[in-house]
Write a structure and sequence with these properties.
two-stranded antiparallel sheet; elongated
C-alpha cells in the first residue's frame, strides 16, 4: 500500500490492487527462522521438563553436546523457510501475471463503458482470479504433500530411535 500524501490514507498500488504484498509479508513472519529457533532452543526446552531438572544431570553438558545438531537444525529451518517464502512469492507472481493478462484483455475492449464490455471485462477478471487461485492452491497442496511425505518417511526413523532408546 502507498500513502496518499493529500489525505494521509493508504491506497492500493496499481501493481498490487488487492494488497497481497502486505498479506504475503505477514505470512512470511510465520517462517522467520529466528522465531523457529527460539521455539526449539535447548535451554528453553529443557527448562520445561521438570523431571530432567530434578534429576542429577548436567544440562549444560547435554546442551553443549547437542549444540552442533541444534545449529544444523536451525540452518535447515532457514532453508525450509526460504523455500516457503519462495512458494508464496511464486503464488503472488501467478496472481499478478493472471490479473495483468486480464487487464490486457480489458484494454482491448472497444468501448469499455458499454454494458457488454463491462460484463465481458468482469468475466475475464473473474476467470483470471479463479485460475490464479486454483493454480496457487495446487502449488500449496504440492508443498503440503511433499511435507507430509517427508514427515511420513522420518516417522519410521523416530519410532526406531525411540525403540533403540528403550532397549538401552
Amino acid at each position: 500500500m502507498a500513502d496518499n500524501k493529500k489525505t494521509g490514507k493508504q491506497t492500493q498500488s496499481t501493481m498490487d490492487p488487492f494488497g497481497f504484498s502486505e498479506m504475503f509479508q505477514e505470512s512470511f513472519k510465520m517462517f522467520d527462522p529466528e522465531r523457529v529457533a527460539q521455539m526449539f532452543d535447548p535451554q528453553k526446552v529443557f527448562a520445561q521438563m521438570p523431571a530432567m531438572q530434578s534429576a542429577d544431570m548436567d544440562m549444560n553438558s547435554i546442551i553443549k553436546k547437542n549444540q552442533a545438531s541444534f545449529e544444523a537444525m536451525v540452518e535447515a529451518n532457514k532453508a525450509a523457510a526460504a523455500t516457503y517464502q519462495d512458494m508464496l512469492e511464486k503464488q503472488r507472481d501467478i496472481f499478478n501475471r493472471m490479473t495483468s493478462a486480464a487487464q490486457d484483455v480489458a484494454k482491448k475492449t472497444e468501448s469499455p463503458v458499454s454494458p457488454d464490455a463491462a460484463a465481458k471485462n468482469s468475466k475475464v477478471y473473474a476467470e483470471a482470479a479463479e485460475t490464479a487461485f486454483n493454480l496457487m492452491r495446487e502449488m500449496a497442496e504440492a508443498a503440503q504433500s511433499a511435507n507430509q511425505e517427508a514427515f511420513d518417511r522420518l516417522s519410521g526413523q523416530v519410532a526406531q530411535a525411540m525403540d533403540n532408546m528403550k532397549n538401552k
